[in-house]
């Protein structure tokens, strides 16, 4: 009697996940430089619209290659429209407007406050994650780090308050958006790629309606800002999402989310080296404190497990649906 055929092992990605993780951190870290250069030739809404348009194109091609279907149901599309506003249209536009008056380095550091906002929301019961003492301490440490970055002891002198507030509001929007996504789009049956592509596509439509109301068509198009917007969309939104989902599927959302802590480092290095932005001592010191506080807010209390009775049979294992992780730039 012949033995049954052994199924072949699943094909592993040719590029190690650590390499893809590093590329993802570089792309998102450089996104703030791309925004800064893009706003030198286009209005902020135009930068955001171009970013979303090219990002949608990349995700649409990926969906076509994988033959992924669009989500179904009017309710799902309604939730996706809200998520598109909170996670794409609003924060992307706020960062574009913010970088008209603040350095890209500061925008990148403000982006790292998203976990702090998420923790703050959990304190007012807007999140399913309840705070622990360690996480509450992380919030306090992160707040001290933000004050250090902003130079609070100097009365915030030399700091554009409006631009900084916009960058912080963009990070707050990310935190609200991901709480909303976890509560409304879990269990829809659609793949992460399908949800992401549809979400970014809806955000593109939102900007397509808003942009003509506040901007005029540019009289001339400069090459460098145009290339920056294309890179911002195709790489920073489209390819970055594809890389992110691949890393999440291979090593899990917890490890993949650690990319958040590399983004401000890369954004700062790019802004100083390539844009000649000035960097005082309190900016990197405060950034380290912010990242330390953000890391503490992501810790989880150990779960208490109750051992099963000896005679109880273990339930069948089902494939877990991949979790989505936030995009931070």
Highlighted features:
329 residues, mainly alpha, 65% helix, globular
Figure out the total of helices.
Answer: 12
Q: Based on CA inertia axes, which overall geometry fits?
A: globular
Cα-to-Cα separation, first versus last residue: 59 Å
- Portion in strands: under 5%
Order of helices and strands: HHHHHHHHHHHH
Mean pLDDT: 84
- Gyration radius from CA atoms, angstroms: 21 Å
Largest sheet data: none
User: What structural class results from the helix and strand content?
Assistant: mainly alpha
Helix content: 55-70%
The unreliable regions are 1-10, 305-326
Describe the 3D structure.
There is one protein chain. Helices cover 65% and strands 0% of the residues. Mean pLDDT is 84; it is low at 1-10 and 305-326. It is globular and about 55 Å long. It is built from 12 helices and no strands. The chain has 329 residues and is an all-alpha fold. Helix 2 packs antiparallel against helix 8.
Could you give the topology of this structure?
Blueprint: H1 17-38, H2 44-66, H3 74-98, H4 104-111, H5 114-123, H6 133-150, H7 161-184, H8 192-214, H9 223-251, H10 253-256, H11 263-275, H12 282-297
